[in-house]
Design goal:
3 domains, 16% strand, Chitinase A, domain 3, four-stranded antiparallel sheet, 15 helices
């Protein structure tokens, strides 16, 4: 479930990156590190840590990297996600830690900080999004092998990044009334514009100051990547090893998008692609892009499809949980009350006392596994037991409905979608600029 949480104030389509970026611990200054190492050597003649990267006046330590890799692997196991080889993963995570240290220093220099109360509120919201209270959420993290203190530090860094984006990136974004008018008109009247696209993405970054030789080299890298994909290499693995995009370690998956939410160069390419097809390298201000259209679906965006369901949730991944829920399912089929069983055994504190009933939900409001299962069920049908990141579920579909989205809501959604697409592009440029302006030295 946790990979679907959203922090307060984030757009509904944004995926929180705190766990995925694996940011750990305070980063000491060079002077602090030197003092600690000297004291340790004088006392025990043993060096307890070493510097992996010098970043302006700060450092990334080997212990930071080890913790980050360990935490990321635990997250990947919980999400059943494939990871690149250890050496590639280490390089990727180190690069992300460097970028996060750059942003941390930049935030400090501009007076941006996060207080404990803000972090507490964010964690409480995450727990609610995962149908848990704060204590249950903390216990579930521990049962899944996650260190709560590291998790909390990750959330604090995610909030810090959010504040930076709000101050330095979002003010640059402008969405005109004409753009909103065009968006609304297209989704009301153009069947192609109503389609949604599931996109996988690889970016080969090119700095704005790159000369022609560096640009040519990047283009060749993009063509080499395309050749590997055409030869049958797995897209997610290639993205994890080769992409400079923010979602590289998540296989380059950008999720579902409409054409209006994408920059023109991507929208133009997707309009002519079939599911499963790869693009030629596409040039933008950020570099060269290779995309794969994983899937596409039609749908009237002026209509909102919602689902009403109830579930029984058991946290964790005990070996007997699946069989236990199979037995519960059989009891219901034979006439037992789903509501009574949910009240008795479900560990979802938000729905157990309501007979397991969840609020009406639309796409993106529940973990993907729950939405996918709901979409396969007929009315009153009971699912087999299925797993999400934090436990096992038994679901019964109660009802479906479709309702018209009013004009004001539709225009607000259009503005949010257009703004989010522009923000993502601007974040790439902003991050690259911060990196180019920083001193970074890698240590063996």
């Amino acid at each position: 479930m946790i990979d679907r949480f959203r922090l307060p104030g984030r757009p509904a389509t944004a995926v929180c990156t705190a766990l995925l970026l694996c940011l750990y611990g305070g980063t000491p200054t060079l002077a602090q590190t030197a003092d600690a190492t000297e004291q340790s050597a004088a006392a025990d003649d043993v060096v307890l840590d070493r510097i992996r990267a010098v970043v302006n006046e700060g450092v990334v330590l080997d212990s930071d990297l080890r913790s980050a890799i360990s935490f990321f692997k635990q997250q990947a196991r919980s999400n059943r996600q494939n990871l690149p080889p250890d050496d590639v993963l280490a390089n990727r995570v180190l690069e992300e830690l460097i970028n996060q240290e750059i942003r941390r220093q930049h935030a400090r220099s501009t007076g941006i900080s996060i207080d404990a109360a803000s972090t507490n509120r964010a964690i409480e919201q995450i727990a609610r999004n995962n149908n848990m209270d704060s204590l249950q959420f903390r216990e579930t993290l521990a049962n899944q092998g996650f260190d709560y203190d590291l998790f909390r530090q990750n959330i604090e860094r995610e909030l810090l990044l959010q504040r930076l984006i709000e101050r330095e990136v979002q003010p640059r974004i402008r969405v005109s009334q004409q753009e909103i008018d065009d968006y609304v008109e297209s989704i009301r009247n153009d069947a192609e514009e109503q389609q949604r696209y599931r996109i996988q993405h690889i970016l080969i970054a090119v700095p704005p100051t790159a000369d022609s030789a560096a640009t040519d080299e990047a283009e060749q890298r993009a063509r080499d990547v395309l050749q590997r994909l055409q030869n049958g290499d797995d897209f997610a693995e290639v993205a994890a090893t080769s992409s400079d995009g923010a979602r590289a370690l998540q296989g380059g998956d950008l999720g579902w998008r409409t054409l209006q939410e994408l920059p023109d160069f991507l929208a133009d390419a997707l309009g002519n692609m079939s599911a499963g097809e790869l693009s030629e390298p596409l040039r933008s201000a950020n570099g060269f892009h290779v995309i794969r259209l994983a899937d596409k679906q039609s749908g009237d965006q002026s209509q909102l499809s919602e689902v009403l369901a109830r579930h029984i949730f058991i946290a964790g991944d005990a070996t007997d949980t699946e069989q236990r829920l199979r037995e519960v399912r059989q009891q219901v089929i034979e006439g037992a009350s789903f509501e009574a069983l949910a009240a008795e055994i479900s560990e979802d504190p938000n729905s157990a006392d309501k007979g397991g009933e969840l609020p009406w939900f639309s796409e993106g409001q529940l973990p993907a596994e729950m939405e996918d299962m709901a979409n396969t069920l007929e009315k009153d049908e009971i699912s087999p037991p299925f797993r999400t990141q934090f436990g096992w579920h038994l679901m019964q579909l109660l009802d479906r409905r479709t309702r018209e989205i009013d004009e004001e809501t539709l225009r607000n959604q259009a503005a949010d979608a257009l703004r989010q697409g522009k923000v993502e592009q601007e974040i790439e440029r902003w991050s690259r600029q911060l990196r180019d302006e920083s001193f970074v030295e890698l240590r063996p």
